[in-house]
Amino acid sequence: MKTEWLRKEGSEKLLIFFNGWGMDGRIAAHLVNKSLEEGGNDACNEAFTEDVLVCYDYRTLEPGEEFMAEVSSYPHITVVAWSFGVWAAQQVKLPPVARALALNGTLYPVHDTLGIPSAVFQATLASYSEESRNRFNRRMCGSSEAFACFSTMSPSRDTSEQKEELEGLNTHFQSRSLPSTPDWHFSHAVIGGRDLVFPAEQQYAAWRGVPQTIIGDMAHFPFFHFTTLQELLACFRK
């Protein structure tokens, strides 16, 4: 697992962003920049003061040696996780987490009723190529407008590396078939009604009993609808 500090200003609050498969730090960096630009402009975009650490690339699930020492110094930790990052977040040893938000993902990443159907995942893995990557990204975004938004922050990673990560995740999923039992739990789930990767019905079932925000016209890529971290954090108040 790779980690990257996007903001480290000595705040008492830390936001750890677990990105989706195939990504790097660019989406989180875009959100941080927009959050700082828009801070204080309206009720949903109050001043953003958290330090931010992004995690991605789940070919291995172990962060660097300094990870635990660095994050343990924060008295207040928020986790925001998207897609396969939802599952990955609970595989990592963390200090006490105050609150955690799941975005279009579940703790059962490949599951016929609670995640991505197994046949769909295996077909994606078997056929992943430059051509299929473009198809997947368009399907993930759901519209030309969202795809244009994604293109401004798409990862600087090549297709072969992304496939290697997907193969690594497949191995992880098979060896860790049951959800882990960390000391913290996701406190809110945001579900896109037009998610074609993690079907909305599977997400509803997976997060039964957990407070949910449902956005009917949102596809799997949520950062066309949520453009700042303040907007995401506002979901905890719903």
Notes on the structure:
The protein has a 7-stranded mixed sheet, sandwiched between helices. It has a single domain (2-237), classed as Rossmann fold, CATH 3.40.50.1820. It contains 9 helices and 7 strands, in the order E-E-H-E-H-E-H-E-H-H-H-H-E-H-E-H. Strand 6 (188-192), helix 8 and strand 7 (212-215) form a beta-alpha-beta unit. Helix 5 packs across helix 6. The radius of gyration is 17 Å and the shape is globular. It has 238 residues and is α/β, with parallel strands linked by helices.
CATH superfamily: Alpha/Beta hydrolase fold, catalytic domain
Helix/sheet category: alpha/beta
Which radius of gyration do the C-alpha atoms yield?
17 Å
Helix count, per DSSP?
Answer: 9
CATH class: Alpha Beta
Please bin the fraction of helical residues: 25-40%
What is the count of structural domains? 1
End-to-end separation: 32 Å
Largest sheet: 7 strands, mixed
What is the mean predicted local confidence, pLDDT?
94
CATH architecture tag? 3-Layer(aba) Sandwich
Inertia-based shape: globular
Task: Tell me what portion of residues adopts beta-strand conformation.
Answer: 15-25%
Give the helices and strands as they follow along the chain.
EEHEHEHEHHHHEHEH
Q: What is the count of β-strands?
A: 7
List the helices and strands and how they pair.
Blueprint: E1 2-7, E2 13-18, H1 26-38, E3 51-56, H2 67-71, E4 76-82, H3 84-89, E5 99-103, H4 118-127, H5 130-141, H6 144-151, H7 159-175, E6 188-192, H8 200-206, E7 212-215, H9 229-233
Parallel strand pairs: 2-3, 2-4, 4-5, 5-6, 6-7
Antiparallel strand pairs: 1-3
